[in-house]
Amino acid sequence: MNKYTYFIILIFLLLFAEINSTYSIPQFSLLTGNKCISCHIMSQGGGLRNDLSAYTHNDVSLLKPKTVGLEWLYKLDPQQNTIFDGKLTLGMDFRLQMARSHKSEDAQRKIFPMQAAVYAQYAPVEWMSAEAAINVGHKRFGNTNTADYPGQQPWMASVAFQPSLSWPSLRIGKIQPSIGIRYDDHTKLTRQAPSADGTNTTGISSIIPPLYGEYGTEATYDGLHIITLSAGIFGSQALSEVLAPVPQGSAVSLISAKNKPSFAFRAMFWPRFFNNSINTLAGGSYFVNDDFFMLNGFAGIGLTDYFSLTFDYAHSNKKSVRTTNTYSLEGLYQINDALLLCARIETGNSIIGLFDEFTNQIVLGVQAFILPYIELRPEYRIMEANDFRSGRWAAQLHIFY
To answer: I want to staple 53 with a disulfide (CB 3.0 to 4.6 A). Which of 3, 49, 234, 350 is the partner?
Structure first.
């Protein structure tokens, strides 16, 4: 049997597996009708999860823990990620990836860690909290074999002030500006500059790198379910590390001067219809620093606990250097709370002088929660760029808390 046959068999095996969990994964707001902040401490999602997230994930799995002798582990308090009367919240993400390069037929399959992050938040009073995240896999901590992206940060931390839930919050520290929709898949084209070789390992094709953050402050309004508004001002030290190729063949920083601030604005709307069975979202963001800007637009629709469809567009411009446009359309179908099928098609191009570089990709995959807090993501990806066209299968193991 060829590799396509194996992938189809895997899909059907997962479709007919016995599944008995009761809650869909919270990062897909269109499947649940929840805003990102319902389960994360950040309005844009990502990073530390709150006690509601821990509570709901405690029952989401394909296998019952007692069938593998782990019922003792999951009998703990479902809100076990909070201690000291709920004032301290802890969390982590670990991702192990198995993949093979698309560029060479002789490329070897490798297994490598993609993410190792720990989080904490301390809220001494209701109107103030402090949070921190450490990327322990960063080379700054002595991991010289890791391939960190330019602009990726070893740590982030902030303090947030919010008088009440109906008021805006103000966050100050080293944080990620609200840009577009924050996904946990760093291979999405909407934060990259499509390139001739289809990769983003050189730093020249990455625009907003994974775990990107800057010193700054951001105000966010989440007082009504139907809307999220944010505006912030940030430094540009991390973004200055990100490069863009110039027509002559060298590369320059996206930032013309490190002392010039970046500004970020985002608006997101979350209307629901037909007794909350239809969930939608629409919005956009604008991120600018002197002669560089990035514009994002996004929209989506979902049927609660069944499927979702999202569309993303990203446009960036470094004056007289490079212009990029990327499009992404992704569908998710929920077989049950612990098992989702996903398909994504993306296309984009980068205009550098007289050159037009492109990247296209199709991704077919499964997101399966084998046990609570343990997710397996097998996928098959077809990628095409100026210099090659290939198909590869890969898998990711995600352990989170």
So the answer is: 49
